[in-house]
Specification:
This protein is mainly alpha-helical. It has 18 helices and 2 strands. A two-stranded antiparallel sheet has the order 1-2. The longest helix has 33 residues, at 74-106. The radius of gyration is 22 Å and the shape is globular.
C-alpha cells in the first residue's frame, strides 16, 4: 500500500534537471542587487517598447491613416492604417525563428542587442517618414517597412529576454524575475495612454496631424540608446552551443520538432488565452462599450490606466505565488476558470457599470497572473539549448494566429448579431475552454 502511494507521488513530483545532451556553455547570473536591477531593466525594456508602440499606434491610427494613406473616404484611410499595423504580426514568426535560433546558438544577450537595434530602425522609419503629400506612395511604403521591422524584432524579443531572466534567477525566484517582463507591458500601456490623452488635450487637430503624433515615436527612440547601453553591460547566462562538440548544422527548430513537438504545440495553444484576453478585454473594450453603452467615451482613459496598474500588480503577485507553490499548472488552470467566469459577467452585465468594472478588474488581475505563470511554465519546460527558440516561436505563432485575428473575429460577431452584448464572449469563452484543455495536457517539467 505504501509502495503504491509512493508511485503516485512520483507522478506529480517535479525534479529540476539538466539536459545531458545540451553541450552549452552555462554562465553565472547576477549576484548583487545592482546587477539584478540592471538585468531586469535590460530584459524588460524591449517588451515595454513593443507594447508602447502598440498602444500609441492604435491611438493615432486615424491620424496616421490621414497622413500616409490618403483617400477621400476617411474610413478607407483608417482601414489601410489598421491593416499596415496588422502586417507587423505576420513578421513575428519569422523573427522568432531567426532571432530565437540565434539566441540558442550565440547567447541571450547578443540576441537582445539585435532585437532592440532592429526595433530602433523600425521606429525611426515611422517617426521620421515624410507625409504622403510630400513623397507620394513612398510614404506608406516606409510605414510598412517600419512595421515589418518592428514585428520581426518583437518576434525574437520575448524568447531572448524571458530566457535571460529565468536563467539568471535563483530557483526560488524564477517567477518573480519573469514577472518583470509583464510589468513592462503594463507600464508601457499606461505611458501610451498618457501620451495619447495629453497630446489630444493640448494640441489642435492640425498640430496633431503636422507633428504631434510623432512625439511618442521620438520618445521611444530616446529610450533605445539607453536600452542598448544597459543590455551591453548585463551578464550572459548562456554562450550558445560548443561548436567543438556539436555540429554547426545544429538547429533548435529541428530539435524541437523531433523531441518536443507535442509540448511545443501545447505551448502555442497556452498563449492563446493570454493573447485573446489582452486584445479583447483590454484593447477592444473601449470600442465595445462605445458600441453597446453610452457611458464609456469620457472614462476610456481612466479605465485603461486602471487596467494597466492592475496588470502590473497582478503580474508581480503571480510571480511571487509561483515561487511558493510546488506546481504551477493547477494554479494556471484555476486562473483560467476565474477568467472564464469573470469575462462572462463582464459581457453579461455590461450595462451595470459597477458590476462591469469589478468583473473587468478581476479578469484583468487574473490575466496579469496568467501571463507570468504561462511564461514560466513554457520557459522551464524546454532544455536550455532550444529554450529561446521554443518560447519565441510558440509565443509569436499564438499572438499572430489568435491575437492578430481577435478583434476582427469579435467585430464580425458583433455585426452578425446586431451588436449583441454577449457576442465577444461566444468566441472568448469557447477559446478559454480550449486553453484550459491545453494547460491540462501540458507536461510540467523544469530544466535548469
Amino acid at each position: 500500500m505504501n509502495q503504491k502511494k509512493g508511485h503516485a507521488l512520483n507522478k506529480v513530483k517535479l525534479i529540476d534537471r539538466l539536459d545531458t545532451k545540451d553541450h552549452s556553455q552555462v554562465c553565472v547570473g547576477p549576484k548583487t542587487s545592482r546587477e539584478k536591477t540592471k538585468l531586469i531593466v535590460a530584459a524588460s525594456l524591449g517588451n515595454f517598447l513593443e507594447f508602447f508602440d502598440f498602444t500609441v499606434y492604435s491611438f493615432f491610427a486615424e491620424v496616421i491613416g490621414q497622413i500616409f494613406f490618403k483617400n477621400d473616404d476617411p474610413m478607407v484611410s483608417l482601414m489601410f492604417s489598421a491593416t499596415v499595423f496588422g502586417v507587423g504580426f505576420l513578421m513575428r514568426p519569422f523573427g522568432s525563428i531567426m532571432i530565437g535560433t540565434y539566441a540558442d546558438r550565440h547567447g541571450r544577450k547578443a540576441a537582445m542587442l539585435i532585437t532592440i537595434a532592429i526595433m530602433a530602425f523600425g521606429s525611426a522609419m515611422i517617426g521620421f517618414a515624410p507625409p504622403y503629400s510630400s513623397i507620394g506612395m513612398t510614404a506608406p511604403v516606409l510605414i510598412v517597412i517600419g512595421r515589418l521591422l518592428q514585428g520581426f524584432s518583437a518576434g525574437g524579443e520575448i524568447g531572448a529576454a524571458t530566457t535571460l531572466l529565468m536563467e539568471s534567477a535563483p530557483h526560488s525566484q524564477r517567477g518573480l524575475f519573469i514577472s518583470w517582463q509583464f510589468v513592462g507591458q503594463g507600464l508601457s500601456s499606461m505611458c501610451g495612454a498618457l501620451f495619447g490623452a495629453v497630446l489630444s488635450y493640448m494640441l489642435s487637430e492640425e498640430q496633431l496631424l503636422t507633428w504631434g503624433w510623432r512625439v511618442p515615436f521620438f520618445f521611444s527612440l530616446l529610450i533605445i540608446p539607453v536600452g542598448l547601453y544597459i543590455r551591453s553591460h548585463v551578464g550572459e547566462t548562456y554562450s550558445g552551443e560548443n561548436h567543438s562538440i556539436t555540429s554547426k548544422a545544429f538547429s533548435p527548430v529541428i530539435k524541437i520538432i523531433r523531441e518536443d513537438f507535442s509540448q511545443f504545440v501545447l505551448a502555442t495553444l497556452m498563449i492563446m488565452p493570454v493573447t485573446l484576453l489582452i486584445y479583447i478585454m483590454v484593447f477592444y473594450m473601449p470600442t465595445y462599450l462605445k458600441q453597446t453603452t453610452d457611458v464609456m467615451s469620457s472614462y476610456a482613459y481612466f479605465l485603461s490606466a486602471g487596467m494597466s496598474i492592475m496588470t502590473v500588480i497582478s503580474a508581480l503577485l503571480g510571480g511571487v505565488i509561483c515561487d511558493r507553490i510546488p506546481q504551477r499548472k493547477p494554479f494556471a488552470i484555476l486562473i483560467l476558470f476565474i477568467t472564464l467566469v469573470s469575462s462572462f459577467i463582464v459581457f453579461y452585465m455590461a450595462s451595470v457599470i459597477v458590476i462591469f468594472v469589478i468583473a473587468l478588474m478581476v479578469c484583468v488581475a487574473a490575466l496579469g497572473m496568467l501571463m507570468t505563470v504561462q511564461a514560466l511554465l513554457v520557459t522551464e519546460a524546454f532544455p536550455r539549448g532550444v529554450r529561446a527558440t521554443a518560447i519565441s516561436v510558440s509565443y509569436s505563432l499564438g499572438v499572430t494566429v489568435f491575437g492578430g485575428t481577435a478583434q476582427m473575429v469579435v467585430v464580425k460577431l458583433m455585426a452578425a448579431s446586431g451588436s449583441h452584448p454577449m457576442s465577444p464572449f461566444w468566441y472568448l469563452g469557447t477559446m478559454l475552454i480550449l486553453g484550459i484543455l491545453a494547460y491540462a495536457l501540458f507536461r510540467e517539467v523544469r530544466y535548469v
